[in-house]
């Protein structure tokens, strides 16, 4: 997935701290880093204005709680997905793990196991599922695309085996209140607190610790990272385990919010998670991205979905909007890069040899 | 054949021979596993061997096989198409809708369906090659965009068999000398594509692009044009599969064929088409489709819970790719020892 030869107008950006980077003025590099987040902020502001125009309830507390809690499951799953995509891998199985953890939780509850005991059990199941992905990717060296496509089917199938076509819906009130209730006296949903805590932790780990540096190093150049002492396999396996645990937690939250555990909970959510991550400016080829961008993308997407709903757009067409957003969020930076590199060349008064711009590009 | 193509220019004689044997044995291995599975199921459930049951299995597998052939061409170029199921669903619905409104005669409606598949495939190809969106992302997007179009066309309705011309779905059950029509069609598709991949420059270039895009570029292969061609062909074949899907099932919903992409990709992967690109044959993919169909049928006949199907499909994918990787690792070691001596 990594593509070292993608022609970059700013070669310094691919080698942090290299002398090449130092030759560019500092503010230019800073603006390059901030640009995508700024674009997202502008889009978010425009969406809020549009939402306010569509409905006078848009800027109310209950609607805020509503639009935020509708995306919290995908939001927390997007955090580990961000790190996985930065290392150049992908985890397509998260939506099935969401279904499987909800199904097992429901089955345990129906069998008389208290919720407080059920939640740790399904988190362990999530870890085991992630470990399976991680071992196959890191140990056997299989492409994560095909591994997680396999476990996408496997986990969903297991959810079907556990729960069949039935739904478990008699969860205790305290549990479901966690899913769609707010902190008393505020319009802040409990689940937003979970996302906020995880968001801060992931931000710190990704951008302030050696673990984060290793993640980016692996994504930029796997071999260079290995030669400089990064245990690439262990790191990747750990990220898949993390992804499994968080997806299982998302399954718990989804079951609580719907106050229903069904084997098909979470179907189609991988699309939304990957869209959030890429909309957040993370490079699908690995090596680049920020947790801040992804957090902004979470709110952009939730406001967009809410505005579409207020405009009377049905959920099928909302999925189309998400699909367009996904493709657009990869295309826009590419087109911007192209325009910039052409204008750079034009300024230097040099014509590029035909077709040289993306030589070696692997599509 | 793929192994020969990719190995011949670079590998030593022994390595190439070993690789080509493994490449050939994948189809044989799969055929062997299927024979054993058939024997076991036939012993436990004699109805398995009845002509009606075998025709039904083969007809369903034929539809998946046609789509899997297209998917294989894409995977051989080191890409993936997750949107095939939406293409199949949309084509099936549009063809049924056109026939319901009696807007076109039946053959024209089929042509529209296949053409629509081609256009959707070209759209994927354009997004991937012109806008440089990685195929995984692009087709994850079009998976929901094409499905959205399906909902738009359907407008909350479905098309029933009664809305279609009388005798429309007869083709799905008709047979020549006991061989179902769809199976004959699938065999024709597999043979034509297999010959194209083996004998034409286009075919060899597809493998070259998948095994090493940069090297392919250096020797003058227009990689992106090849990838565009593979996605177009995949769309076209998904269009054919969509037309057949409509005939097979009669009643078409906006959600028809949801989740089938997994089965199609699984067929290709189990058939030995490697996700890493540059290897595998469409014959293998077609056998993979038949294998998955047999598993489905066995569960039904042995009265095992249908919920197990997805578990087994998932496990089969993981086992197939893991076995591949382990065999390749051993081959590499053997080849290395050989070279050392």
Task: Provide an overview of this structure.
- The complex is a heterodimer of chains A (363) and B (341).
- Chain A is mainly alpha-helical and 363 residues long.
- Chain A has a domain at 60-301.
- In chain A, 70% of the residues lie in helices and 1% in strands.
- Chain A has 15 helices and two strands.
- Chain A has helices spanning 19-22, 26-54, 61-69, 72-86, 94-110, 115-138, 144-163, 173-180, 190-208, 210-220, 222-227, 232-258, 269-279, 291-310, 315-348; strands at 167-168, 261-262.
- Chain A starts with 18 loop residues before the first helix and ends in a 15-residue tail after the last helix.
- Chain B is mainly α.
- Chain B has a single domain, classed as ABC transporter involved in vitamin B12 uptake, BtuC.
- A two-stranded antiparallel sheet of chain B has the order 1-2.
- In chain B, helix 4 (84-100) crosses helix 10 (223-249) and helix 8 crosses helix 10 (223-249).
- Chain B is globular.
- Residues 1-12 of chain B have low confidence and may be disordered.
- Chains A and B meet through helix 7, helix 13 and helix 15 of A and helix 5, helix 6, helix 9, helix 10 and helix 11 of B.
> In which order are the strands of the major sheet of chain A placed?
1-2
Please trace the helix and strand order of chain B, writing H or E for each element. Answer: HHHHHHEEHHHHHHH
What is the 3D form of chain A? Answer: globular
Oligomer: heterodimer
- Which stretches of chain A are low in confidence, meaning pLDDT under 50 for 5 or more residues running? 1-30, 352-363
Helix content of chain A: 55-70%
- The tally of structural domains of chain B comes to 1
The radius of gyration over CA of chain B amounts to: 20 Å
CATH class of chain B: Mainly Alpha
Largest interface: A-B, 51 and 54 residues
Number of strands of chain B: 2
Look at the helices and sheets of chain A and give the structural class.
Answer: mainly alpha
In the CATH hierarchy, the third-tier topology of chain B is known as ABC transporter involved in vitamin B12 uptake, BtuC
- Taking all Cα atoms into account, the compactness measure Rg of chain A is 22 Å
What's the main sheet of chain A like? 2 strands, antiparallel
Broad shape of chain B: globular
Count every helix of chain B, treating DSSP H or I runs of 4 or more residues as helices. 13
Q: Beta-strand level of the residues of chain B, as a percent range?
A: under 5%
Low-confidence stretches of chain B: 1-12
Structural class, from secondary structure content of chain B?
mainly alpha
């Amino acid at each position: 997935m990594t593509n070292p030869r993608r022609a970059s107008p700013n070669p310094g950006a691919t080698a942090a701290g290299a002398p090449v980077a130092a030759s560019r003025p500092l503010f230019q590099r800073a603006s390059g880093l901030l640009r995508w987040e700024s674009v997202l902020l502008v889009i978010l502001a425009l969406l809020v204005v549009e939402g306010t125009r569509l409905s006078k309830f848009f800027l109310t507390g209950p609607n805020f709680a509503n639009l935020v809690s509708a995306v919290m499951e995908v939001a927390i799953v997007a955090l580990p997905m961000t790190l996985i995509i930065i290392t150049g891998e992908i985890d397509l199985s998260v939506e099935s793990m969401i279904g499987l953890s909800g199904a097992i939780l429901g089955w345990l509850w129906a069998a008389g196991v208290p919720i407080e005991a059920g939640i740790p059990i399904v988190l362990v199941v999530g870890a085991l599922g992630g470990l399976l992905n991680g071992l196959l990717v890191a140990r056997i060296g299989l492409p994560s695309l095909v591994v997680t496509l396999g476990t996408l089917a496997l986990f969903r199938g297991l959810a079907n085996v556990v729960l069949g076509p039935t739904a478990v819906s008699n969860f205790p009130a305290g549990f479901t209140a966690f899913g769609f209730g707010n902190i008393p006296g505020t319009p802040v949903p409990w689940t937003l607190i979970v996302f906020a805590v995880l968001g801060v932790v992931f931000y710190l780990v990704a951008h302030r610790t050696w673990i984060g540096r290793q993640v980016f190093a692996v994504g930029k150049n796997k071999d260079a990272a290995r030669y400089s002492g990064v245990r690439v396999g262990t790191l990747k396996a750990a990220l898949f385990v993390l992804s499994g645990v968080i997806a299982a937690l998302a399954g718990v939250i989804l079951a609580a919010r719907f106050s229903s555990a069904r084997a098909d909970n979470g179907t189609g959510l991988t699309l939304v998670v990957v869209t959030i991550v890429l909309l957040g400016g993370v490079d699908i080829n690995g090596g680049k991205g920020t947790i801040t961008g992804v957090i902004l993308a979470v709110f952009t997407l939730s406001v967009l979905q809410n505005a579409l709903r207020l405009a009377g757009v049905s959920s099928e067409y909302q999925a189309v909007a998400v699909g367009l957003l996904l493709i657009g969020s990869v295309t826009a930076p590419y087109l911007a890069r192209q325009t910039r590199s052409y204008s750079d060349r034009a300024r230097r008064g040099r014509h590029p040899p035909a077709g040289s711009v993306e030589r070696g590009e692997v599509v | 054949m793929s192994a020969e193509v990719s190995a011949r220019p670079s590998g030593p004689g022994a390595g190439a021979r070993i690789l080509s044997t493994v490449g050939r044995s994948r189809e044989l291995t799969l055929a062997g596993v299927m024979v054993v599975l058939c024997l076991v199921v036939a012993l436990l459930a004699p109805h398995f061997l009845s002509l009606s049951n075998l025709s039904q299995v083969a007809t369903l597998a034929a539809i998946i096989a046609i789509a899997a052939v297209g998917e294989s061409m894409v995977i051989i170029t080191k890409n993936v198409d997750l949107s095939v199921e939406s293409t199949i669903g949309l084509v099936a619905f549009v063809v049924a809708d056109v026939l319901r409104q009696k807007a076109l005669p039946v053959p024209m409606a089929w042509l529209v369906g296949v053409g629509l598949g081609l256009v959707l495939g070209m759209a994927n190809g354009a997004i991937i090659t012109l806008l440089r969106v990685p195929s995984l992302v692009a087709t994850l997007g079009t998976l929901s965009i094409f499905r959205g179009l399906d909902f738009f066309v359907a407008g909350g309705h479905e098309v029933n068999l009664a809305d279609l011309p009388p005798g429309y779905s007869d083709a799905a059950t008709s047979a020549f000398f006991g061989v179902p029509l769809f199976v004959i069609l699938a065999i024709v598709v597999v043979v034509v594509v297999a010959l194209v991949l083996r004998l034409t420059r286009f075919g060899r270039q597809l493998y070259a692009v998948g095994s090493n895009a940069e090297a392919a570029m250096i020797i003058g292969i227009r990689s992106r044009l090849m990838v565009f061609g593979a996605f177009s062909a995949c769309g076209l074949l998904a269009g054919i599969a969509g037309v057949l899907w409509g005939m097979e099932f009669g009643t078409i919903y906006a959600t028809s064929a949801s989740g089938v992409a997994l089965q199609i990709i699984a067929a290709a992967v189990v058939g030995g088409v490697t996700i890493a690109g540059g290897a595998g044959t469409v014959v293998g993919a077609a056998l993979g489709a038949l294998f998955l169909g047999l598993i489905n049928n066995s569960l039904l006949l042995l009265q095992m819970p249908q919920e197990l199907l997805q578990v087994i499909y998932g496990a089969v994918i993981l086992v197939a790719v893991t076995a591949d990787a382990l065999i390749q690792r051993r081959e590499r070691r053997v080849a290395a020892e050989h070279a050392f001596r």
